[in-house]
Amino acid sequence: MSPGRWLLRGASLAAALGLWQLLTSLDVNLWLRFEQFPTVGEVASAFADRVGTGAYWQDLGHSLRRIGVGFVLAAVLGVAVGTAVARSRWAADLLGPLVEVVRPVPAIALVPVAILLLPTNEQGIVFITFAAAFFPVAVSTRHAVRALTPVWEEAVLTMGGGRARVLFSVVLPGALPGIFGGLSVGIGVSWICVISAEMISGEYGVGYRTWQDYTVVDYPAVFVGMTTIGALGWLTSTAVELLGRRATAWLPRPAAHTGGRTAAPRTAVPRKEPVA
Q1: CB neighbours of 186 closer than 8 A, spacing ≥ 6?
Q2: Which pLDDT value is given to residue 253?
Q3: Cβ(114)–Cβ(167) under 8 Å?
Q4: Which of 8, 202, 222, 234 is the most buried (most CB within 10 A)?
Q5: 11 has which bridge partners?
Q6: What is the DSSP string of 185-229?
């Protein structure tokens, strides 16, 4: 990314923070009421105080562990189920209806099910995180696998390759862009649901701490929690995106844009040999 784009993004963030500081410091109350909002300085001071405590990092560790376990399980099982439903008529008949019936149910609505089904709150929160990410991954994988052209599969079969060779050499590599699209959506939904689950039934975690700060009317600390959640979501989404780029490095990339115009790819100019 060019320095100009980094500068533009930084200016956008600085402008938003400046507007926030202006509206809250002047106690603007024009339909939107900013007199109760903490200022940017108050949130920054509360953030500095909270970062120096062990409880902050403990909550951070709990939330990251829950996201990590739930998301990895959802990624593995989501890709497996999506591929099976797309490739097998039996799997489509057995698993397809279950996926379509349960998929519209919000993951956070499964909190009562998790409380009744699982022995501990920790396992219940991981289950909610898993359920949030599983369906975007499974559905994206299913569509990506079904969209593959059969030409490459037929070529592998013609050359004597078996089902396993087709799966690992054609199907999964070809579906990777769609799979990572589902993973990118899934990690964002996972953060939404794990924070909500921590607020409802958690004992530790960023969501739990943010809700506790709200109950004691510590609004700067509430915004510290919100900022932490946003930063964690951005970092994990960026990590998934970078991993996806690495895994699909063989795909053609769009041409770089320079000065509002698309830069033409450079072509080698043949050198003229001197005439003897």
Answers
A1: 71, 74, 75, 78, 132, 133, 134, 136, 137
A2: 66
A3: no
A4: 202
A5: none
A6: HHHHHHHHHHHHHHHHH-SSSHHHHHHHHHHTT-HHHHHHHHHHH
d(CA 264, CA 210): 50
Q: Output DSSP code: residue 118.
A: S
What one-character DSSP code corresponds to residue 272?
P
Q: Cα 205 to chain center, whole Å? A: 18
For 91-100, the CB contacts below 8 A with 24+ separation are 99/135, 99/138, 99/139
* pLDDT of 196: 87
Q: How far apart are CA 182 and CA 251, in angstroms?
A: 18
Give the pLDDT means over successive 10-residue stretches in the chain (276 positions): 84 90 85 85 91 91 93 95 92 90 87 84 90 94 89 78 81 90 92 88 85 90 92 92 87 58 46 46
Single pTM value for the model: 0.81
Q: Quick one: tokens of 113? A: 């099910």
191, 136 contact by CB (below 8 A):
no
Residue with structure tokens 């949030």? 132
Total Cβ atoms within 10 A of residue 36 = 10
> What are the φ and ψ backbone dihedral angles of 127, each rounded to 5 degrees?
-65, -45
Pairwise CA distance, residues 75 & 185, whole Å:
11
**What's the angle, vertex CA 133, arms to CA 244 and CA 114, rounded to 5?**
155
